[in-house]
Amino acid sequence: MTIENISNNKVLDGWHKQYNHQSNVLNCKMRFAIYLPPQATSKNKVPVMYWLSGLTCTDENFMQKAGALRMAAELGIAIVAPDTSPRGENVPDDEKQAYDLGKGAGFYVNATQPPWNKHYQMYDYVVDELPELIETHFPVNSQRVISGHSMGGHGALVIALRNPKLYKSVSAFSPISNPMNCGWGRKAFSAYLGTDPDAWTLYNTWSVYDASELMRKTTAQVPAMVEQGENDDFLEEQLKPNALLLAAKANNYPLTFNMAEGYDHSYYFISSFIDKHIRFHAFNLGLLEQQ
Amino acid sequence: MTIENISNNKVLDGWHKQYNHQSNVLNCKMRFAIYLPPQATSKNKVPVMYWLSGLTCTDENFMQKAGALRMAAELGIAIVAPDTSPRGENVPDDEKQAYDLGKGAGFYVNATQPPWNKHYQMYDYVVDELPELIETHFPVNSQRVISGHSMGGHGALVIALRNPKLYKSVSAFSPISNPMNCGWGRKAFSAYLGTDPDAWTLYNTWSVYDASELMRKTTAQVPAMVEQGENDDFLEEQLKPNALLLAAKANNYPLTFNMAEGYDHSYYFISSFIDKHIRFHAFNLGLLEQQ
Questions:
Q1: In Å, how far is B18's CA from the nearest CA of chain A?
Q2: With contacts defined as CB-CB under 8 Å, which chain A residues touch B13?
Q3: pTM value surpassing 0.90
Q4: Complex ipTM, two decimals?
Q5: Residue B239 pLDDT > 70
């Protein structure tokens, strides 16, 4: 597992770095970004927050726009931002290059359907291959938390709910909370996972990637925090936080949910609450005595 | 002076807004962005920090990438970010669309040479027209500070040094400190102001837009802070901070200069030190008792 350094920026006494590497899981060359806070040294390995971005994003959006690095530098948490899909000329894309399918829209699932299944294995990439690579090459320990926005909020919740031993906490900004029941989710799941959601086997195939379904059934309890802007244009049609809230209530799940009045779906919203989320993760990592 | 609202994002309990307006000074339609902190109301008008961006930027780069809004919201300072040049189909651009001349590269001067002089009047736009418009339409008072990056750091220093009664303080990140003696500056000044810098009249024409020349001669003293990354790729060829330092020393000018080890020319650098600069401005505005 070799990685190729392609950029270095000093930020707040730490370093933002980008790398290319050949992904065995995705069968293509991938780029990721890491922020190493000043505390990270070979003798003082730090925990990692994985950040999963939303539709159309790359590794760059969060690092440039969220204002997250200040609190990460203060508390000593590394941040890793992968891309949102496999990339490259050989990777299939939507015929019309739609923003919500194909490149930039991997939905953090393992595709089972051709032509997607050869490359679109973002679930395994985020859960297994990328952390192994990060923990091999950087001064980080194996303590992980995970967060994300929109499609990436969906990914973060699904990944933490399915791997409660791997993540100390999970948070999400405006997540696609019930993808089985919204346009974005049904389009992506139909393409990547198969097209008959009423069949029992396919229901099972879809529901293991649906945060509301998972939260309703899980017996493990990874502390979760969700932030949602009340003026988000996608709130009713795509995000459906009520499904998640009902699931949490039914299963007595430790979900902290905040509906933020006046806020939208943008990075301006994320930057307004990212400090709170990083402190939430720091508390669950044992770095802070209170949030 | 009418303005057209084109976007609104709630950020940190305040509002980021973009507007279009017809500029009489620039003879074209211009866009600007304003951040109004939560303290700004018709009964509590707040001071304004003007931010001048660097080559290729628009009103958006600083607002999205600098992480500045948190401290502005905390201290109650509005931020206004204009574009970096006149815009539109009728505005002349460099023949080769070079990044360092024409659109995106107005250099905050009043051009005297055709074809530039009809539109490229960014000095008057920033000093007069834009503040008048801002103070007419928004809950701000007439207290101003100014800051900027690279070409915009040059603009901020020049504008404050030439208008010491209008600005309480000035700061700059990696400014083009001595544009008469670097490639970027000589190219732009030749085009906008005329091509014979050795002639005395033209020397005068150039020197009134050169921060080092102005700092060496001024009798007024606007408190100034400059941040420079030591690993900035443009440091030796274009930025030349030593000229500014020598001028400040010769004239006993109140310049706080920080050479930041390991930092580059990017917004990651700006985001690392923007809190310090906003606190410097807040102190000079009387909002903080110490920096």
A1: 13
A2: 272
A3: yes
A4: 0.93
A5: yes
